[in-house]
Amino acid sequence: TVFTLFGVGIWQSNLVGVLYAMGALFCFYLFVRRIAGLTASLWFLLLSALSYNLLFFGRQPFLEHAMAFWAFLALAIITYGRRPWAFAAAGLFLGAAALFSKIHGLIFLFPFACFLAWRGLFDDPRLPRLSLRPLVSFAAGYVGAIALWFFVSYLPAPSQVTSFFQENTIELHGAPGGLK
Fold it and tell me: What is the DSSP string of the chain?
């Protein structure tokens, strides 16, 4: 929609990166505010504004910004959401973060599992304890993202998808010659 509204050019593609980066910051701000309070969340925003990575790379149209946005949107939803459909949407968004942007997004699975386990096992005044239903809904949303990726991305072009994942996992970080 950015290109439809503003045309195609360098600043328009940089705008996509900025929107994803700012959206990710806002979603993570919501999480920090709920967990640690207003003061900590404002400190988070101040330190993020001074971050070298955000200043120099936040405007670039990198896939990492899309990955962070979808993952932090899922985090904000499971922090504030109460209904099972919200948890299903969060699972779908977390799956999209890994499967439709960068496979490195799979690293978010462990912290999400820890956070959801904490929410399911312990009572906390900031967050209500979760029953099994929202957790199953979250898992169903994630499985839905896998199914969507399989039918929309993988099946139409399996060799290109396999090549993309190989380039973004092994070859991107310099595989030794014996592994190629």
Answer: -HHHHH-SSHHHHHHHHHHHHHHHHHHHHHHHHHHH-HHHHHHHHHHHHT-HHHHHHTTS--HHHHHHHHHHHHHHHHHH--SHHHHHHHHHHHHHHHHTT-GGGGGGHHHHHHHHHHHHH---SSSPPP-HHHHHHHHHHHHHHHHHHIIIIITT-HHHHHHHHHHHHTGGG---GGG-
* Residue 173: count of CB within 10 angstroms of its CB: 7
Low-confidence ranges of the chain (pLDDT < 50): none
CA distances from 64 to 45, 75, 104 (A): 19, 16, 9
What per-residue confidence (pLDDT) applies to 49? 80
Closest among 143, 60, 54 to 96, alpha carbons compared: 143
Residue 176 CA, chain-centre distance (Å), reads 30
Output the average pLDDT for the chain: 86
Encoding tokens for residue 66? 């899309």
Tell which residue, 94, 123, 120, has the closest CA to residue 27.
Answer: 94
pLDDT at 1: 74
pLDDT at position 170 is: 64
Phi and psi (nearest 5°) for 143? -65, -35
Residue 21: phi and psi, rounded to 5, are -65, -45
